[in-house]
Specification:
The complex is a heterodimer of chains A (263) and B (270). Chain A is α/β, with parallel strands linked by helices and 263 residues long. Chain A is built from 7 helices and 10 strands. The N terminus of chain B is likely disordered. The chains are: A alpha/beta (263), B mainly alpha (270).
């Protein structure tokens, strides 16, 4: 199968401040590709440039070297003016912070992308309402973000991106800030939703267990400058029970291998 | 039964707190009035008009229709100037937002022009615009514009960059981002600006009316002073204060509606 996204020799360094040495490369010579419908996880230590990598793929940040090819089309990502954030609504992005609009209720937040795209109709609304129910937010549609718990806000942010149906979704440690129990539930929710739609997902995390539980394939990033240090297929059959992932055959072996790669 | 007791227990602290606040306010108001009355007796009615005289004067003015006329004249200038200043004060930062280079070029000039004492311009404005509403209007616009401009500008700078990125990725265009993200984010700033600017608009109008007017609350105050009618001066000041308070209350209502989503303690309204 041909790649949907191809990252070739990607590099990033932030511009130097006046009179200082140019800062070091955050990312250097980083290459990988993603197949359509694949759930790819990327593991990296804190400060390894994971968010920067996703920001570049989402086209909200420029690239200093290399290129990004999406569906056969090379993106113009060298210059801030030619960036196309979200690549014409084809790349969704669930960030580390939920970034819900505080003045909009849950349902209005979920409908926000559909609304700005001018696609709000009975069908898209019904789809959004279905997603709200699917992640257990029924009854909270008219609540404002500050009235929701952290886990609920994550769910709202997640289905906001799913609701407008971009073929690719980037996820930047979306479940890092919630407690372990909620995180397991959110992971299960995500897999359930992914099964419904089979989108292409690039999921970044520093948690090895999470990367194995969710992904078809896991990439390990090196310390700065980040590049791909290792690649691991995750042959654990689906559907997976996220809560019991430790008990599954093959988990321990993959875990050990990835941990060794990170050292 | 226990539920009822619990409920009563839950309600009464906040209720008693509210009564304490109201009681405190009434006591303060009474003390101020008393101080006013005592000052009038001590310094004589040329320097301090007694509160009762002032109240009666206001009733007289209301009955004669003079009060409504003067308030209407003052409000006309304040409101129009205020509206013009608000539109300019909001539009300009939004335009500057689009061009950091233009912002950098324009900023020192705006800051410098802010330093000009606006009332000092009045004689020159009269020279240009005569003695109608126009010179007053210009002073009001200048007094209000900077407040709205600065608060809107600060509000735009404080907009969460990540929300804008989120909206862009979702496919929002620049107009949508300005309307849905930037404007909504800066509303709390804008309302703060409004509340600072409103009394200024009325003050500016009244000062303008001291100089050039044949009607308005400021004109009444100045005219009363010229004929040594201290009660009239005090009546005018009282009306002007009431006017500002009334407008402020109206803004608070609008603010509470517009910012209803905010998790703020609503009792504390400035």
């Amino acid at each position: 199968m041909t790649a949907l996204i191809e990252i070739r020799d990607l590099g990033k360094r932030f511009p130097a401040r006046h009179g200082r040495e140019p800062p070091p490369w955050v990312i250097r010579d980083l290459s990988f590709s993603v197949r359509p419908g694949e759930f790819l996880t990327i593991i990296g230590p804190s400060g390894a440039g994971k968010s920067t990598l996703l920001n570049m793929i989402a086209q909200i940040e420029t690239v200093s070297a290399g290129e990004i090819v999406f569906d056969g089309e090379t993106a113009k990502v060298q210059d801030a003016r030619s960036l196309r954030p979200g690549f014409d609504r084809r790349i969704g992005y669930v960030t580390q912070d939920d970034n819900l609009l505080p003045w909009r209720t849950t349902i209005d937040n979920v409908l926000f992308p559909i609304e700005v795209q001018g696609r709000l109709n009975a069908q898209t609304r019904a789809h959004a309402e279905m997603l709200v129910r699917a992640v257990g937010l029924a009854g909270f549609e008219r609540y404002y973000p500050h009235e929701l718990s952290g886990g609920m806000r994550k769910r709202a942010a997640l289905i906001r991106t799913l609701a407008y149906d971009p073929p690719v979704i980037l996820m930047d440690e979306p479940f890092a800030a919630v407690d372990a129990q909620t995180r397991t539930q959110l992971q299960a929710d995500l897999l359930k939703l992914w099964n419904l739609g089979r989108k292409t997902i690039i999921f970044v995390t520093h948690d090895i267990t999470e990367a194995i539980a969710l992904g078809d394939r896991a990439l390990v990033l090196s310390r700065q400058p980040a590049r791909i240090a290792a690649e691991h297929a995750i042959p654990i059959p689906r559907p997976r029970n996220v809560a019991d992932i430790f008990a599954l055959e093959g988990f321990a072996a993959i875990y050990e291998r990835i941990r060794a790669a990170i050292q | 039964m226990t539920d009822a007791v619990l409920a009563a227990g839950a309600i009464s602290p906040s209720l008693s707190r509210r009564w304490a606040i109201t009681g405190g306010r009434l006591t303060l108001a009474a003390l101020l009035l008393l101080g006013w009355e005592l000052s009038a007796r001590r310094f004589g009615s040329i320097f301090f008009a007694p509160p009762l005289d002032v109240a009666m004067r206001i009733v007289e003015l209301a009955q004669s229709g003079r009060l409504a006329e003067d308030i209407a004249a003052t409000l006309r200038v304040s409101a129009l100037g205020f509206a013009i200043a608000c539109i300019l004060g909001v539009l300009l930062p939004f335009l500057l937002r689009r061009s950091p280079r233009l912002t950098e070029a324009v900023e020192p000039f705006i800051m410098a022009s802010m330093g000009i004492p606006k009332y000092a311009l009045a004689p020159w404005l009269i020279l240009w615009f005569g003695i109608g509403d126009l010179p007053k209007l210009v002073v009001v616009v200048l007094m209000v514009f900077y407040v709205i401009f600065i608060t809107t500008f600060a509000g735009i700078r404080a907009v969460d960059r990540r929300l804008i990125d989120m909206a862009r990725i979702a496919g929002a265009g620049e107009t949508m981002i300005a309307r849905e993200i930037v404007w909504k984010s800066l509303l709390p700033f804008f309302f703060t600006g409004l509340k600072v600017a409103l009394p200024r608009a009325v003050s500016a109008t009244i000062v303008g009316e001291f100089l050039v007017a044949s009607e308005g609350v400021g004109h009444y105050i100045e005219y009363s002073r010229q004929v040594s009618d201290t009660t009239g001066v005090f009546a005018g000041i009282t009306v002007a204060t009431a006017l500002v308070l009334a407008i402020n209350a109206a803004v608070n209502v609008i603010e509470r509606r517009a910012l209803g989503w905010r998790p703020v303690e609503r009792d504390m309204q400035l």
